[in-house]
Amino acid sequence: MLTLDKVYRASYALKGTARKTDMIHAYNVVKGEKIYLKTENLQTTGSFKLRGAYYKISCLTEEERARGIVACSAGNHAQGVALAAQKYGIPVTICMPDGAPISKVEATKSYGAKVELVGETYDDAFDHARRLQEETGCVFIHPFDDEDVIAGQGTIGLEILEQLPDVENIVVPIGGGGLISGIAYVVKKLKPTVKVIGVQAAAAASMVNSVNRHEILTLPSVRTFADGIAVKTPGDITYDIVENYVDELVTVTEDEIATAILALMERQKLVCEGAGAVAVAAVLFNKIDIEDTTTCCVLSGGNIDVNILSRVISRGLLKTGRTADLTINLMDKPGQLLGVSSIISKHGGNVIGVFYDQGEEEMAVNSCVLRIKMETRDGAQIEEIKEALRAAGFSLIDTMYQY
To answer: Is-contact 312 226, C-beta < 8 A?
Structure first.
């Protein structure tokens, strides 16, 4: 049974291993609102997952430790298990999806774990890990559907209530549900007036769909760059806790997650992975009502691959109107590019890329297509530039920006 006593024991066991991460007042996330960030992205191993994994392994008997352990993970649980196993001198095998970020795979190996890359999704890795458990007799460390793991994650709830006593909303990412289960259980037992809100990626909304239907459902597929919460099926234990203790569930899109990552980098100087930024995305895009309240957003992890990060930044810039792509139909004669770039410059835009094409079908022989990428302030400035180009006689045949 999950109990407060177990969470307090987990808190004691984690002393000296897991950091008590900072609670940061984020003045610039949503102007005029009291937003605080619980920075688990700055946790040891870069994620909250260390808490649950370490506490679970600390509870194993000597006989269980001698058998070795096996786990499955998209990356963050893997690092937590690997570090805990290293500290206790336990041999460990981690099954990870073949598409897991290279940075997470290498970090897991750096703690001495044996890594097996399996399939495309977390669920493929889970199935393989279960087979290994049956074949070898190792102890399986579940990433979320385990009461000891949930108790470890619940220590974050204890810290939030201590660091932010007047908190009214706690916004938490959801994958399989271990993090929000631990936080919601603790918070509702100690301060039931606090609202706990869960956030999933719209392309991996397994918990949202399950709670809405009042039964555990399995998604046919998940497609989100927030790999830390890309889970097809919620846990049995976590589903029950979420149904009973969580007040509200919402989803955010891929573009909204990208925008949140960019906002955290620019405004708070914090790096978050996709899963770690979904709580902020929900706040930024008004998915929940936080007006005139004190709100804590949990940043669950910061282990984002640098290659993905560059693409995420590009998406975030497009979403907020910070960059834009314009496609213009021109007569192929001297001075056209100068005319276009002069108008963009006059209205404060900055041309950063130019592509010129003479060969598209169904165009006049003496015409061409000019594609321009430009830096801008926001969507309003983009519209201003477009109107100025049209007024000067230029034909915009396509605009490929979002804001």
So the answer is: no
Residue 362 pLDDT: 61
Average pLDDT, the chain: 92
Predicted confidence band at 316 (pLDDT cuts at 50, 70, 90)?
confident
Contact 156, 48 (CB under 8 A): yes
Reference 2, options 57, 56, 82; nearest CA is 56
* Catalytic positions, written as ranges: 49, 300
C-alpha–C-alpha distance, residues 13 and 353, integer Å: 54
| H, E, C per residue of the chain | CCCHHHHHHHHHHCCCCCCCCCEEECCCCCCCCEEEEEEHHHCHHHECHHHHHHHHHHCCCHHHHHHCEEEECCCHHHHHHHHHHHHHCCCEEEEECCCCCHHHHHHHHHCCCEEEECCCCHHHHHHHHHHHHHHHCCEEECCCCCHHHHHHHHHHHHHHHHHCCCCCEEEEECCCCHHHHHHHHHHHHHCCCCEEEEEEEHHHCHHHHHHHHCCCCCCCCCCCCCHHHCCCCCCHHHHHHHHHHCCEEEEECHHHHHHHHHHHHHHHCCCCCHHHHHHHHHHHCCCCCCCCCEEEEEECECCCCHHHHHHHHHHHHHHCCCEEEEEEEEECCCCHHHHHHHHHHHCCCEEEEEEEECCCCCCCCCEEEEEEEEECCCHHHHHHHHHHHHHCCCEEEEECCCC
- Do residues 271 and 301 touch, judged by C-beta distance below 8 A? no
Tell me the CB-side half-sphere exposure of residue 61, using CA atoms within 13 A: 2
Per-residue pLDDT, 213: 96
